[in-house]
Specification:
Elements (H helix, E strand, L loop, with lengths): L1 H5 L3 H18 L12 E9 L9 E6 L3 H12 L1 H8 L14 H18 L2 H11 L3 H37 L2 H4 L8 H8 L10 H10 L1
Antiparallel strand pairs: 1-2
Helix pairs in contact: 2-7, 2-9, 3-7, 4-7, 5-7, 6-7
Length: 215
């Protein structure tokens, strides 16, 4: 993002910001960053299909499977008005919060993940879902009662960090000076940019290590 600002490539800056948003959005969702993302694999149970082509067949699944969609889809949708109202109260970025390097941005992301785990321990989410004994509204209500306020809080944290890193990259790349003009980016134009496999690709740990040494 810094390079795109420096090189007067605002469309690529925006697309890179969007890719980053996905990663940071996941980082403030406890089931996205845990091995308990859809149940507890260390407590396997036998599930028997009761209908469809597999009726009568059995398979081994993690205890609490279904918690992911119950929490991240059904619960979020059911309480979207409360969540959006909470996100509108996300604190604005202060000048002293901006980061100087990619390492600092990564460290803040790890801190976000740790804080998310502290506020909403994944084992608690899974156990809440298991205790209800079924999905549907009963599970949604139980999950919201147990972690609704905390969910709004971690989403505020995620939104805030996204803003911190966006603003930091723009400032580090001197976007106000280097970007000559900005216009609305169409969906087709954005897709053309991000469909390139070489555009901000995911990298392995050894590659990240080299980047950190360079900084």
């Amino acid at each position: 993002m810094v390079e795109f600002a420096e090189n007067d490539e605002p469309d690529k800056f925006v697309c890179a910001a969007g890719v980053l948003t996905h990663y940071l959005g996941d980082s403030c969702q406890p089931l996205h960053i845990s091995y308990l993302h859809d149940g507890d694999p260390e407590r396997p149970v036998t599930h028997t299909f009761t209908k469809g082509k597999k009726e009568g067949e059995e398979e081994t699944i993690p205890m609490g499977q279904g918690v992911h969609s119950a929490y991240e889809d059904a619960m979020i949708f059911a309480h979207r008005a409360d969540i959006l109202a909470g996100l509108k109260k996300t604190p604005k970025v202060k000048a002293n919060e901006r980061v100087k390097t990619g390492f600092d941005a990564a460290r803040k992301t790890i801190d976000l993940m740790r804080n998310t785990f502290d506020l909403i321990p994944p084992p608690n989410l899974v156990q809440t879902y298991i205790d209800v004994g079924k999905g549907g509204k009963a599970a949604t209500d139980a999950l919201w009662k147990a972690s609704g306020k905390q969910t709004i809080s971690v989403m505020q944290d995620g939104a805030h960090l996204i803003a911190v890193i966006w603003e930091s990259a723009w400032e580090a790349g001197r976007g106000e000076e280097n970007v000559s003009s900005m216009a609305a980016l169409s969906e087709d134009a954005a897709m053309e940019i991000v469909s390139d496999p070489e555009f901000v690709p995911s990298v392995t740990v050894d590659k990240i290590g080299k980047l950190l040494k360079r900084e």
